[in-house]
Amino acid sequence: MKSLIVQTTIRALLPLVLLFSIFLLVRGHNDPGGGFVGGLAASAAITLYAFTFGVEQTRSLLHVRPFILAATGLAIATLSGVFAVPVGLPFLTGLWTPENTPVVGAIGTPLLFDAGVYCAVLGVVLTIVFELMEE
Amino acid sequence: MISPFSIILSGFLFAAAAPLLQRFTRDRAHVILALYPLLTLLLLINEYGLVVDGPVIRESLSWVPSLGIGLSFALDGLAYFFALIITTIGLLVLLYASAYFKGDQRLPRFYLLFMSFMASMLGLVLADTLITLFVFWELTGVSSYFLIGFNNQRAAARAGALQALLVTGLGGLALLAGFIMLGNIAGSYDLPRIMESSAIIQQSPLYPAILFLLLLGAFTKSAQVPFHFWLPNAMEAPTPVSAYLHSATMVKAGIYLLARLSPALGGTELWHYALSIPGAITMLLGAFLAFGQTDLKRLLAYSTISALGTLTLLLGLYTDDAVKAALIFLFVHSLYKGALFMIAGSVDHESGTRDIRALGGLYLQMPATAAAAVLAALSMAGLPPLLGFISKELLYEAKLQAPVAAPFVTAAGVCANALIVALAAKFVLMTFFGQAHSTPKQPHEAPILMRIGPALLAGFGLIAGLLPDQLASRLIEGAVQAVRPEIAPVHFSLWHGFTDVLILSTLTVGAGIALFRWGGWLLVRGERMRVLASLGPARAYDSLLRGTLRLANALTDAIQDGTLRHYLLLALIFLCVLLGAAAAPLLRHGTLPAMSGIPFHEAATAVLIALGAVTVASSKSRFTAITALGVVGFGVSLIFLFYGAPDLALTQFSIETLSIVLFVLVLPRLPKLLDTSSLSTRIRDALLSSLLGLLVALLVLLGADAHAPSHLQEFFGEYSVPFAHGRNVVNVILVDFRSLDTIGEITVLLVSALGVYALMRSWPGERQ
Amino acid sequence: MHILLALVTGILFAGGLYLMLRRSIVKLAFGLALIAQAANLAIFTSSGLVRGEPPIIEAGGMRLAAVSSDPVPQALILTAIVIGFALLAFVIVLIKRAAWIVGTDDLDDLRNVDRTAT
Lengths: 135, 768, 118
Description:
The complex is a heterotrimer of chains A (135), B (768) and C (118).
Chain A: H1 4-27, H2 35-53, H3 55-62, H4 66-82, H5 84-87, H6 109-134
Helix pairs in contact in A: 1-2, 2-3, 2-6, 4-6
Chain B: H1 4-24, H2 29-33, H3 35-46, H4 48-53, E1 57-64, E2 69-75, H5 77-100, H6 107-126, H7 130-148, H8 155-186, H9 191-196, H10 198-203, H11 207-221, H12 230-233, H13 239-248, H14 253-265, H15 269-291, H16 296-317, H17 320-351, H18 367-381, H19 387-400, H20 406-432, H21 448-466, H22 468-483, H23 500-518, H24 520-535, H25 537-559, H26 564-589, H27 600-618, H28 622-642, H29 646-666, H30 679-705, H31 711-724, H32 729-737, H33 739-761
Helix pairs in contact in B: 1-6, 3-5, 5-6, 5-13, 5-17, 5-21, 5-22, 6-7, 7-8, 8-11, 11-14, 11-15, 13-17, 14-16, 15-16, 15-20, 16-17, 16-20, 17-18, 17-19, 17-21, 17-22, 18-20, 18-21, 19-21, 19-23, 20-23, 21-22, 26-30, 27-28, 28-29, 31-32, 32-33
Chain C: H1 2-20, H2 25-46, H3 71-102, H4 107-117
């Protein structure tokens, strides 16, 4: 897949798909989407990029090793649950800003949790794909 | 006030601390460890008047209250009697062992095990509920396993330990079953309640079964024929262990149990016969087999078997006299047998052999040990003025007044005792007197700590024989009263006057000496009998053990042949039966929904998926199979889309894409798909899979048919917006309501990624 | 449609089992993949099918419409799909490794390798 057209297309497509995946993640609480779907979409895009430009270049684009990303995701998800503890609520209870927060509406720790899921899924899939491609 | 629980607990604490103590005190741990039996002994002596005459000391801790199981202990006359023996002999053997094992690297381990055993044994005799008793019963078994196998470099020691564990462990299982039945009938596991329920228990139709199970436990532990064979083999244990476990304590546990439960179970005709007959046989056979032994320890072991048989016999007779005689004999036997075992150990230690044929004339080199041996042997032979004499007089008295078959019982007693006299003579005379032989080591006197124990035990036999009323009668009385409360005060005296008992005693000693002097012919017979005996239960044990192992092997080979397909096949056939059984009753009620009204695009998708599945299953090309797999996946995601699951559809779609990428990456390196099975195997597998597929289809259908509106759906539907501020209920469940599950799931993802990473990276030789 | 999907589930299941009973380790992996699909579909179908009504509350609404798909099995299946993928990846890599190390893809031969190794 060294064709110039493909390379150009992918290069242009990658930010778009990544943006779309984050859109999926954010809107997931109210509409189809969420951390799992978003993470999968993002990993599909990055996998495509890796097919085109090779794993080395993709790795340097990412800056972090995929498995570290996955572990960070798990940590974020777990951490999002810890916020409830000092307030006196059970671990993983969702905390929310007031309903009428301008621009974004209500946001809360479940969004952070979903972001953790997103990172975990992305990291896991990329770990597997990179390992297999690099062989 | 003495607290049984703290005594037992501190025993285990001492045991746990023993290895560290040994290090910090530079091999002088015995000085500190000896404090435990010593202090316990002093505490017991301090309570002497209270326990022997006064109320029973009870203590109870809640353990499993829901099952009515408490951790209860009681110190009554019987427990006191045993606890005294356990601590006294424990103290002496501990000191003895510290010299016996001097400089041995394994001493810390020995102390740990020995102290645990002592604490377990105390727990056993102090227990006040059946369950507590059982727990400590098994603890003695486990610690004795390690003690017998102490020389674990020796195969014989390991085999002996395993044998003892298996035989007594089997008995322990029977005992537990018996205890549970007993507890059910009495309505409680507490010993006092069980004693009260004596009438109900003895009239219960389960009484014979209970008695059988309990006797199985007691007989295995106390080495009654036909379970006696483990005791001689347990002589592989270091001698201090034998002196403690196999003379005075553990083997007496079965006797203790019989005595303890006799108020509840004893006195029936069944009890008489079930105890007396095995007891008498054990008594005779043990003494007879002992006679042919040349190894000092095995000789003592067989004579112990004989003594245990005597005790069982006496408890079987269960008259006042018999119980009294049993307890005094148990006391005497513990004294002299403990001493003799230690002496055998000293002889072995100092001369390098314990083969009686290679020994002789040792009294010159080991005068103190020899003196103790003479005293102990005289007590064993039952000669005046030792305590052994008094015990034998009582023994004969009890046997003469036996409620059943008195002449036979008495005759058997005389025979066994004559043999015991001969054994005592043989032990002392052939070891310490007569012609000296050259031994592997130049013999010399044992160190002081190895002389104290035998000297004190044997010496006490003499002093107590001279002052029986002052030293022994109250103790025995207290113990007997725990079993038979209505008994008259016990008095002992050396001289009973010219009675028929005295005639029997004289006869016994005469016969014993004659046997020792001219018993060679019996020895020859004994040798033959020994071969015969080893063919008996010991052989049965061996073949049972081997047979079990062989069966296990055969079963493993048959069921687990290492072929995945065969495991699967077995599991699937079983699943077929289960599913079939589950589906059959439902089928009668369920009605199949109509096939009509299915939109074309949905039907087409379903057909596509089915075709894809068939293609994957039958394809010989890897590429085709992977493509078909993709078709299946995308088809399923379409189904999700049609039926109101956009999240699933999106996820499935992305996953399918990634799966194909995955396969494409690996495809070139995957092995080709070849048909390796025969056509008939393939047809068989196809039929089985189709059958199971059909069953699954039916179950899915029935499940859908029986599907009631779910409460969960209602709950999540109602609270999703107000509580979790989300309108996509599926996502709300994942990230809020059930987020802990989701954390678990992403952890699984991470683990599998880690697995892939490790598999790809950590193999040497392929990648740098 | 129930009956059709139930049949499809059965076929997926049967195909997967048939593949798992083969000697080729690659077919084992294909079989696993099919059975994962079958399991998801079985849960989905037997929990009741509602056409075109996703469990999403309309904007401004407070509760889920009376007629809509059950969100609970969907949440279950969603994670099952992702985990199924991770499992499949692991199995594939394992197979690749095993076949490479042992030099065979025949499960019977793999077993013999195990035997001689011990």
